[in-house]
Design a protein that fits this description.
196 residues; Maf protein; 7 strands; seven-stranded mixed β-sheet
Length: 196
């Protein structure tokens, strides 16, 4: 499937996430991966929820934008997990991952993904959110998941596409792919805007 009909872009992805790379490929978008940059993902403490995801996605975009030339289109994203307005980032270690999953067990949380798409001349920043409800999880389930899947590169210490998603998630409201790290339906709409 051809995404752009009226214009031709060289599409770049500024993300090392295997999930985002997989989803963009499955959307039928030919893209190139930008070289990894060490970006300080510190955000102002006054920001909350979607504001954080938007800020970090734009922060990543700004790091790569000076490299863009005419005809280049860059995609960056950032996903955060929020429980009662408390942000759960990527776990620092095994104990941190166990603690996060214990917090999420039996509760409903929200997942926000900030998305920034643009050229060297303009960009669009948007976010999507999904509510995710976990069933109560036993210590054995949580420990086995962390030790087997090692979710240390995932916000909230879990991947919805992993084993824990199959057995532990009772309900979601919103985009499944947003929880994976990329709201594909939102990205598609933005890309059509750049094609207009």
């Amino acid at each position: 499937m051809q995404v752009f009909k009226n214009k031709t872009y060289r599409v770049f992805l500024g993300s090392q996430s295997p999930r985002r790379q997989y989803l963009i490929k499955e959307m039928g978008i030919d893209y190139e991966l930008k070289n990894h940059k060490d970006i300080d993902e510190t955000y102002p403490q006054s920001l909350q929820n979607q504001e954080i995801a938007l800020f970090l996605a734009k922060l990543k975009f700004d790091a790569y934008q000076p490299e863009l030339v005419e005809g280049d289109l860059l995609i960056t994203a950032d996903t955060i997990v929020c429980l009662d307005n408390h942000v759960l980032g990527k776990p620092q270690n095994r104990e941190d991952a166990l603690d996060m999953l214990n917090l999420l067990s039996g509760k409903t949380h929200r997942v926000f993904t900030g998305l920034c798409v643009g050229t060297n001349l303009r960009h669009i920043s948007v976010y999507d959110q999904t509510e995710v409800s976990f069933a109560p999880l036993s210590q054995a389930q949580i420990g086995a998941y962390v030790d087997t899947f090692k979710p240390f590169d995932k916000a909230g210490s879990y991947g919805i596409q992993d084993w824990i998603g199959y057995v532990g998630i009772e309900r979601i409201s919103g985009s499944f792919y947003n929880v994976m790290g990329l709201p594909t339906h939102v990205l598609y709409r933005i890309l059509k805007d750049f094609d207009a």
